[in-house]
Design goal:
alpha/beta; Aspartate Aminotransferase, domain 2; 15 strands; Aspartate Aminotransferase, domain 1
Length: 368
């Protein structure tokens, strides 16, 4: 089996976890502080705040900005549900804007029509590891006095015009789930250049404590452990190597897929560094699920990210939150993610390409 994702944990991560366990300091402590400092440095921002997950990072980011019940946040319908769910957590309303059909990211040309007097923020997602088109999005934010919140859960190390994803908005959020480009097991990170936002997020993640046993606001227990941070510190050192492998694997796949009928390789914008959290193709003629089943039956893991828009989920329908995003709906019926992770061998890549050639012959040959 060639898996769709594979966390790469070396002896170094294991050794660092053992050191933490032996230290007796297991909860949030010096390793978390060190991880925050080094992650902020990597992204090129002044502050980073570690959390229990990418979802709790988004939750705290919205709270730190003061977004509340009755407010609206513009975002994409084509993402994991956590993106919009985090907006619901604070009683605000996600307003869905359609995607660019090539990048799958929020289409800046559609944003202005969605802005109302209740709009407080725009939350673009750097989907699959490719940054959203941040220059026009930031311009819209500035012109309308809206916060920009980057959902960078899939974009560790991605760049837009030479600048790191996670350094464009007032605040950004990363995930370290096991399938991400780097992992802490579970975990998240908030990044910002705003000291006040960072301090508020730190208080909110720890029961609203400004100092020990002094609770000034209502907060949560969203603290990262030193165990997770120890893993994260090693993974961060390995991230650039992981990224290089992902990009090389993606280039190999694209070179071959571009000669195969019925399957469209990923589009990469000019002047961006796409880090390929997912290598997502489009499968034509309504054959996506057939291709998925065929590949799975022959040992190649695939994924559909994502099979439906967020607003079509029962939760959102029951809440009366609707959307009209035809490009997102079309993408949901056609996208298929193929293995691209650093654990792939040359033989694995060759086998994937070989089976995709069989796919083309079986499902897209005009004689069939």
């Amino acid at each position: 089996m060639i898996p769709i994702a594979q966390p790469l944990i070396s002896d170094e991560e294991i050794d660092e976890v053992v050191k933490v366990l032996k230290s007796g300091f297991i909860a949030q402590g010096p390793k978390v502080a060190e991880f925050e400092e080094k992650f902020a440095e990597y992204i090129g921002v002044d502050y980073a705040v570690a959390t229990t997950s990418g979802t709790t990072a988004l939750h705290l980011a919205l709270m730190a900005l003061g977004i509340e019940k009755g407010d609206e946040v513009i975002t994409t319908p084509f993402s994991f549900a956590a993106t919009a769910n985090s907006i619901l957590f604070i009683g605000a309303k996600p307003v869905f804007v359609d995607i660019d059909p090539e990048t799958y990211n929020l289409d800046p040309d559609k944003i202005n029509n969605a802005i109302t007097d209740k709009t407080k923020a725009i939350m673009p997602v750097h989907l699959y590891g490719q940054p959203a088109d941040m220059d026009p999005i930031r311009k819209i934010g500035e012109e309308n006095e809206l916060w920009i919140i980057e959902d960078a859960a899939q974009a560790h190390g991605a760049q837009y015009h030479g600048q790191m994803a996670g350094s464009f908005g007032e605040i950004a959020c990363f995930s370290f789930y096991p399938t991400k480009n780097m992992t802490t097991g579970e975990g998240g990170m908030i990044t910002t250049d705003n000291e006040e936002l960072a301090e508020t997020a730190r208080m909110l993640r720890s029961h609203g404590e400004g100092e020990r046993y002094n609770h000034t606001i209502l907060g949560y227990n969203f603290r990262m452990t030193d165990i997770a941070a120890a893993i994260g510190l090693v993974q961060l050192k390995r991230l650039d190597k992981f990224t290089k492998s992902r990009i090389e694997n993606a280039e190999y796949l694209t070179t071959h897929i571009d000669t195969i009928g019925g399957i469209k390789s990923p589009f990469v914008m000019d002047q961006v560094k796409h880090v390929f959290h997912q290598y997502t193709v489009r499968v034509e003629n309504g054959k996506r699920d057939d291709v998925k089943d065929f590949l799975g039956g022959l040992g190649v893991g695939t994924g559909v990210h994502y099979p439906r828009t967020i607003y079509s989920q029962k939760l959102y329908q029951d809440m009366g939150i609707v959307g009209n995003c035809p490009q997102a709906e079309k993408a949901a019926s056609e996208v298929l993610s193929l293995p691209v992770h650093p654990g792939l061998s040359v033989e694995d890549l060759a086998e994937i390409v070989n089976l995709l050639e069989e796919v083309s012959e079986k499902f897209f040959n005009k004689e069939n």
